[in-house]
Amino acid sequence: MKNYIETEPQLKAIEVKDKFWSFYQELIRDVVLPYQEQILKDEIPGAEKSGAIRNLRIAAGQEAGEFYGQVFQDSDVSKWLEAVSYVSNMEGTGRLEESARQVIHLMELAQEDDGYLNTYFQLKEPEHKWQNLLECHELYCAGHLIEAAVADYEMSGRSTFLNLAMRLADLIDSRFGPGKVRGIPGHEEIELALLRLWRVTKEQRYFDLAGYFLEERGTDPNYFAQEKSRKAWMDPTERNYTQNHRPIREQDTAEGHAVRAMYLYTAMADLAAWTADEELKAACVRLWKNVTEKRMYITGGVGSGAKGETFTVDYDLPNDRAYAETCAAVGLVFWARKMLGLDLSGKYADVMERALYNGVLGGMGRDGRHFFYVNPLEVVPGISGEVPGYEHVRPVRPKWYACACCPPNIARLLASLGKYAWGESRGCVYSHLYLGGVFHSLQNGISWKTVTDYPWEGRIQYEVCDHEKREKSALAVRIPGWCSSYSLLVNGRECTKEYEVKDGYVSIIREWTKGDTVSLHLCMEVKRIYANLCVREDAGCTALMRGPLVYCLEEADNGTGQNALLLPAGSEIIERQKSDELLGDYIGLEAAGLRLKGDSKALYSDTPPRAGGTMIYAVPYFLWGNRTAGEMRVWIRET
Asked: Following DSSP, what letter does each residue of 214-270 receive, concatenated?
């Protein structure tokens, strides 16, 4: 078994001190995770009831009652636990960690003698365990529990939770696999979790079981139709929905439920990297190209279809009916990170960055207490969230959801951001994302300190702040695909032309000494972006980007009727430093534009509207919806 081309670092080797991201990580620690704990304990008035912790208490014999919630309710607890583990690297997390230990103890009490742990089936359908893998999320919930346990072990070194997870994984392994019961999860997740469990335990059975679940998918398209004890609300013959239409090695297009697909592709890329399987790698690359070149929103959102939260067809990317679930954007970040283990190409980090700064971050309000499940690119109050076909589009972020997968997913991703920013390969340190702080390389013994005000400014400085080995090694910094020009200085000396960009990275190889610096300056000019003309809704429109950030128009700045705004092709886009109590400090954009006005009140008229001058103001997409409810749009008509 071959190692990764590139390996992810341990979070404990990374200290985040970043002007942009530290705000969000501290928000996760101080607000989001305590708030989510209260939600899970049903302590927030007016929020959707969770019941998740109470379910555990009932299963543990500490309370009497009935199961409450969705079949996957347990997964909200596991994702919360995973995020708590990640923030434990920060100061001031003692109370959170104590709460997490109490929840883990509840899990110990609730776990059955054979290792089984799933409160839905323990409390509601104990006679139907493992009989409805299509709908009932047993393996999905097990996967999130395993991920949380691995994170806890990696961050704390304690094995209690890990042992609990291994008992559950061993039970699953004893039931499913070659020569045992045939089965695959209806919602992928356990595959990537088992690979994580294998990495920390080195137990081959977990690796083999992950491979089994992956390779078995699609080999019998009628598998789910043959399952007994299933409910009637889901059609098991809709094979695309669960990516069960073809074996994974033969799949060419992203199909079905977008989050399931992202988790599947993440595990496929992970397995392909560890096994150096070229056929599986080729399938990952085909699927990547289909998603990012034909089925991804400019924000990094994926899964445009509201019915079933699915991928639809190529170039079907409506703005006002977009689904683009937050969890799918999170999953795209996961997948992109694993693709870097297959192929050290900057295009994967580019998409990771796009999804992170736009599709993921926009899913959470700056107060850390309100969240989007769906991420549209156009909102019109009175239509969005009300008119049939638009019910899923919320003009404001709710406090919580009955199906609350997205908030804890955001938390666990942002809390573990460091492992997405850095990587190592054969003595070379890779800077995939620009993240202020310190990275301690285990391979070459160098500690890199990074200082930046990205994404507002394009200057990133790297400095050797500690050094153990006296030998040559490399620092590879990404040059984003959106960047039209850059400059590079080593110890203050201009050397841009001395190093070529290869696969999106510039590698500086030398014998480093303490105090050495590398300064990267990225041109952060505003760009007008145009969609492929096959995207019908965006023809004749432009979107504004500055660096990795997509911008949008909000009613708070531009008034109502934003569909009547026109941005002339020659109009200069001006950057303005802004500061707002609700939005914080940011760079806004403004330009001289036009607004159409009609004299006729008739529905149809032969009198053309008049165009009058107006200013157009844009804010970063991830900040939308933090002020008053109102219109929003990303794509602007250009004239």
From this structure: HHHTTTSTTHHHH-SS--SSS-TT-GGGGT-SS-GGG--S--SBHHHHHHHHHHHHH
